Predict the structure.
Amino acid sequence: MILPKGKGMYENLRTSFVDLNNMLLALKEEDFTGYIHLSFWDYEGVLFLESGEVVNAIEESKEGRRGGEEAVGNILHQAKMNKDGKIDVYVLPSEMITLFASTITQEALYKDLSSDFTSLDKLIEKLRKEGHTGYVEISFFNGKGGGIIFFQDGDVIEAMVGMEGEEIISGQENLDKIVEKAQNAGAYFNVYRSSFEEPRPPLTETVQERDMETAIALVEEIMKDAERMLDSMAKGKGAFVESFRRAQLDISEKYPFLDPFVGEFEYKDGKLRFLGDVPVREFIKGVGECLDLALEKMPIRASKGDIYNKIRPVLESTVEKYEEVRDRWDLKALLPNLFP
């Protein structure tokens, strides 16, 4: 995948030392505009950010190419699970990110045009006359390189081409050299058009909303199983809910969203309602600590360790059901007594 490098912000960072989720939070605070490139030997993923928000993503592997929300989730998962990858972060102008975000997952307007039958310079002239906004993707016949030419309202705003083992040629001023290189080496051209008809919310928000829905469902199942088990041990319905509410009061200064008087978090009749706005990991960690405190308040003649030993087998199906997020969210660290 050939992309314009722009100004390097971070280069050659290792996934074994960098938490991509934390990096995204830091870039959001900085209103970063550009892209994050994640690469392994058989995988590439790119997150495009504008003003700190993920606006689109693309991933390429032996299975093919995917974009959008699914790609965002997969890229974050790859960064978490694979420790031998590389992360590069490059600053790009907003208009170029907008072009990527609106074209990267679009179907090609023209596909697999061969340089044997198509003149790249004439194709560029045609797109100029049409006022084209989008880009031309160049793929060499030998599969060892390629390039990209960006258009905005018919004007070429960036161009680059590179072949394996050779220096990349880039810049509008080198457009003639880029065209000559592509024609002489032999290449296929794919033309993509930007589509701005349906503005989408930042994918950062979409993924966070989806993750929070999953986290709420996970916590609801844990609390429902714990309630059934603990009420049985206490020989009284409602004992768990009462103990949990008392724990909420004690822990609300550390986790304000758990304050029962605020009303953001409410568990009742086996259903959890959450209206707060906190990161997923903080939500799970806070509920876990509250549950731990609630066990101390239960009217049960058993140690907390003994209680956890009885709860864990009950949660086995829940643990299995949420296996994918278990690793991505590191539930073992957030809920060590429940996810050993």
Q: What stands out?
A: Residues 203-334 form one domain. The longest strand covers residues 53-61. The chain has a mean pLDDT of 86. The longest helix spans residues 203-234.
